[in-house]
Amino acid sequence: MATDSADKNSATAAAILPLVGGAGNISSVAHCMTRLRLGLRDRSLVQDEALKALPAVMGVVDDDTYQIVLGPGTVARVTPEFEALVAAAAASAPGTAARTAPGSSPAAAEELAAHGAAIKAARKAKNSTPFKLFLRRIANIFVPLIPALIGCGIIAGLGGLLTNLGMLPTVVPALTATASGFMSLIAVFVGYNTAKEFGGTPILGGAVAAIIVFPGVANIEAFGQKLSPGQGGVLGALAAAVLAVYVEKWCRGGTSQAKRWGRVPQSLDVLVTPTLTVLVSGLVTIFGLMFVAGAVSTAIGDFADWLLANGGAGAGFVLGGLFLPLVMLGLHQALIPIHTTLIEQQGFTVLLPILAMAGAGQVGAAAAVYLRLPHNASIRSTIKSALPAGFLGVGEPLIYGVSLPLGRPFVTACVGGAFGGGFVGLFNMLGDKVGSTAIGPSGWALFPLLNGNRGLGETIAVYAGGLLVGYGVGFLATYWFGFTKPMLEELNVAATAKDPTPPTKEPTPVSP
Fold first, then answer.
1. Where in the cell is it found (predicted)?
2. Which of 143, 260, 281, 489 is the most exposed place for a label (fewest CB within 10 A)?
3. How many CA atoms are closer than 13 Å to the CA of 321, on its beta-carbon side?
4. Is 77 in the same domain as 190?
5. Largest CA distance in the chain
């Protein structure tokens, strides 16, 4: 069985490689929770439709990297196989061989896919602003940490469950240590990734960030206050590592200011540059950044608690309803440091379960589209293949393949997410905090990571209730308000090879 799985992953990697232009067209390979992320030398060599036709591929996203959606678990197994193929063929010429997709999709599905691709292309063009490029860098720093956050979060949940049940008391401390070790040093990993992302020496970024979690900072007093280990958290580590990169670049002549004032002689670089980088950045971190970042981190935690304690259903309604548009615009990446800060402070983030309701609204909307278009086998086939991933929190195939190109169902999906978020937010206001011990998963995949201030059973019940509300409202809103009469007349038809019946006028997406 394991051999069959390995063969399947290897076959998937082998099928993908020629469709992205071959090994010579690959400049970088990475993966996140659900996507294989590729740096490409020539985008024109990619065969999008043939890629989408592969059984293992749920969709593609053309962003700063070319992203192939494979789903959780699968992507972590396909990526090493893909990397091995690229390495083995590194000396060969860029491949341009095409692979023909097995058959052609009916016209209606092709219309939606083309429309979805156009929306993604337009979004990509708008996402090249300095602010959004900065958010992508933030995502590149934190996304590699997600697997460890998930693993440690599940172990922490298991330890809490055993404690509540009074079982295996001698094992619980070991589970606690296993789950908490990474979180106690997460600032170091953030510093390492930050320096790497901003073009510095990663280990120097980690060294400066390590100051924040060093127990000895408790002996340091400044401005009438004593520092505490961990003060400033991931935000302090992020700022400290960025500062370290600029100091390092200054020493090595990487900035115009360095060229003006001089740089460290090359013969002394190996001794002087690391020393100055750690010394200058370390002192600024101790006597400045830890205080500032600590205040910001505390304010984030206090504001999240205040918002849900006082805003309750209203705050959850707004957050759940706006998350899909934030994802579409790429602005959701700004929330990653906030989630991480809340997990670091409180052990869980109360925002993620609410935002996950957007995916529930999307699933409900897709189910309604399926029922409203009984004669359009192509769109129904797309929905059937994408719904299982949608239940597990992978929403890209449904968003870009169905709801967003259609327009109105995207808005009604947001309505479903809003009501689901309002449900979870209401219980937060009533004192039942529902949080996640890690970021990344959503939908049903979030159940093992749930935590809160009440019993685990009650926390799971509230989250499950929110999902049911999101599914139900998303379905009803889409079923009754997701289509105009002309849209139904154009889309609710059978497409055949001889008489394809695509929409006479491409549906225009409604701006959220």
1. Cell membrane
2. 260
3. 16
4. no
5. 81
Collapsed DSSP state (helix, strand, coil) of residue 35: strand
CA gyration radius for the chain? 25
Per DSSP, 492 falls in state S
Residue 73: pLDDT band with limits 50, 70, 90: confident
Q: What does the DSSP assignment read for 289-300?
A: IHHHHHHHHHHH
Mean predicted confidence (pLDDT) in 239-246: 96
Q: Are residues 415 and 468 in the same domain?
A: yes
Phi, psi of 350 (to 5 degrees): -80, -10
* Overall average pLDDT of the 377-403 stretch: 86
Q: Is 168 helix (H, G, I), strand (E, B) or coil?
A: coil
Residue after which a domain boundary falls, among 68, 94, 120:
94
In three-state form (DSSP H/G/I as H, E/B as E, the rest C), the secondary structure along 193-253 is HHHHHCCCCHHHHHHHHHHHHCHHHHHCEECCEECCCCCCHHHHHHHHHHHHHHHHHHHCC
3-state helix/strand/coil string of 401-442: HHHHHHCHHHHHHHHHHHHHHHHHHHHHHCCCCEEECCCCCC
Asked whether residue 30 falls in the same domain as residue 72, the answer is yes
In percent, the amount of the chain with pLDDT more than 90 equals: 45
* Domain total of the chain: 3
Residue 112: inside a domain, yes or no? no
Q: What residue has token string 């060294």?
A: 207
Helix (H) or strand (E) holding 498: none
Residue 414 annotated in active site: no
Above 50 in pLDDT, residue 257? no
| Residue 2, domain CATH | 3.30.1360.60
Whole-angstrom distance, CA of residue 178 vs CA of residue 189: 17
Q: Which amino acid is at 116?
A: G
The verdict on residue 381 lying in a domain is: yes
The answer, as to whether pTM is greater than 0.90, is no
Q: Residue 459 sits in which domain range? A: 314-491
Tell me which residue has tokens 């678990």: 73
CA-to-CA separations, 143 to 22, 74, 108, in angstroms, rounded: 26, 17, 35
In terms of pLDDT, which residue wins out, 137 or 493? Answer: 137
In the block, tokens 């061989």 appear at: 97
